[in-house]
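Re: your question about Methyltransferase

S., sorry for the slow reply, the queue was backed up all week. Below is exactly what I fed in.
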Amino acid sequence: MPHLATANTELARHVAAGLQKTPKTLSSKYFYDDAGSELFQQIMGLPEYYPTRTEFGLLTTYRGAITAALRPVSDEPFYLIELGAGDGLKTKILLRELLEQRANFSYVPVDISSGALDGLAASLHAELPNLRVEPVVAEYTAALTLMAARPGRKAVLFLGSNIGNFSPSDRREFLRALTQPLSPDDRLLIGFDLQKAPRLIRAAYDDAQGVTAAFNLNLLTRLNRELGGNFDLAHWQHYTDYDPIAGVVRSFLVSTRAQQVHLEALDQTVDFAAWEIIHTENSYKFTQPLISQLATEAGLEAQNFFTDEQAYFADVVLAPQA
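Result:
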């Protein structure tokens, strides 16, 4: 296999398998190279993209009640563990509230990227110098298993609408894996994007400025760069739609003509028919009964349900069943 594949063997394996499927499929987790991360930052500020600003407002409004639900009743030390902390913008609302309450806690951001954690730790040191920060470079479930050995409550954050990117079966298994190391005294705070007007949801994933289209198409640019591909972006389109029955946004890349694409790192040439698609992302939307059902299936119990005035988004506090 040519040398290009050694730059990212996981990506190479994924693309080799995904482009053999029917329909062809690539995972949304590969959106986030440097250019993709920058585009997503732009998406979060778009007028159509309601999830980020809605959850930010929700956390601001209910920060006292949310932190009270997460911390132990006594003043014993506890850990606030965040899975996929990113830039920490929303989390800092809760961190500041806990510091103002003089809560006895340590913040444990978890990510597989040490670079991302180093950047977050530096910004927290500058903005919140009294905060105890213990970054952990690990996969989510491995980090929780590691933390489970420590005494004290673990309050685990999984903010944003990231839970919606899992298929129903993968979502169930993911939540069960998160729950397994936790004790009945521990807590989870998970963000859920709620079902609402279909046109409003669809617009959030297909904005008028075309930033989301550029974000989706950037995946092909990444394959060209890292796997020696020759995707011609002039002959690809971004397409997305929302299915209100299944409650899911599906995003695709569409080949606008019959074409062949060669990937040097895979030593593979892939045929595309005119208007054939590559499925790149699912984003599921939820209802309160569905969240309660999902919690029960994972061995959890929904304890607090915080939502905004328009019921666009929910942050839900869950506890492992005894």
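Confidence is low (pLDDT under 50) at residues 1-7. The CA atoms of residues 107 and 278 lie 39 Å apart.

Happy to talk it through on Thursday.
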